[in-house]
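Quick illustration, no need to memorize.
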Amino acid sequence: MTDFFKGLSQVKYEGPDSTNPLAYRHYNKDEMVAGKRMEDHIRPAIAYWHSFAAEGGDPFGGRTFDRPWYDKGMEGARLKADVAFEFFDLLDVPFFCFHDVDIAPEGATLAESNRNVREIGEIIARKMETGRTKLLWGTANLFSNRRFMAGAATNPDPEVFAYAAGQVKNVLELTHELGGENYVLWGGREGYETLLNTRIGQESDQMARFLTLVIEHAKKIGFTGQILIEPKPQEPTKHQYDYDVATVYGFLQRYGLEKEVKCNIEVGHAFLAGHSFEHELAVASSLGMLGSVDANRNDLQSGWDTDQFPNNPGEMALAFYFILKQGGLGKGGFNFDAKVRRQSLDPADLLHGHIGGLDTLARGLKGAAAMIADGEFDRLLAERYAGWDTGLGRDILAGKLSLADIAARVESDAINPQPRSGRQEYLENLVNRFV
């Protein structure tokens, strides 16, 4: 045991009346919601990077945290793993997620870097044997090192592409060996800063080739988890190719990969794309692309990705509505891609952030389940589109009528439709009734 969380005990559910800041008030992992345990609906995961690798920096200032594993190479990485699994136990969560550079320092060569990752991977494997926290997903960091300043898969230099491929091979195999249920690709540098030096078609072909190689290798090693792309529109790159769910789907469909890959959707990224979180979930679910979720939020007064902990139950109720309507997240889950603020220096602050986030998700889940059970929301939605289930609407969708047939029907039946209220205000009030 380390002494990093000295004096802190495991967080327990104490109910909504509790005033204990280190207790869950709404997140009760064993509570049955819509026929399933709350934990099995949410499948929460801790992000290794924000919780243990983040230094409290922002675009305008460097390190503010003082963690005992910083700048200590492999010795520090081993201590970090010890602290991470103590934290998982304190929060009593079922999953975690990691990038390769989160768990182990980079070496002078790819071979050395991969060996470092493997060494810490063995430590993680042993800890997983004695604890209950498993791996939701792994990924490779293909954006922080300066070699990736012009992209990884989309880089104009094929040697950078090859280096990135070597990284991903190692992390994909480790994810598989650790029993990870997903592998995520986030293309933070897969885009361009200026069209003056960019061939968009060339880079799109490269990205598709890279993704195809990942899919092929996953099958070769027997990985049966989901391959996920995480959409984001901008920052750090001016324009990223995986802008939003619809853009990702169009890319996958162009290269015949739409049945091989799903999306990992993040609240903050949806916001930066000019969408709501529930918009991205609804689009992904309608396309069969909703695989997993990153839970966080952005500061509404800031134009960048602030990665704060979720605290809006109403927003999460709408998110869970779409998740529940598609039958859940399956192999996916809610990864807390969120970090404490740079002034939140104490180890307890890490607990407070995750406790509040889990309570927010719990309230959203219960609200969505109650809304679905009530039935009024779904009834009004069905009523609005009811005309497409019979008669003219059904025949149009079935392809039974040509444009001329439809025009003739309007004239012969003297169709003269009048606008009907969308009832937005009533629906907003209805959702709030269950939060």
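The radius of gyration is 24 Å.
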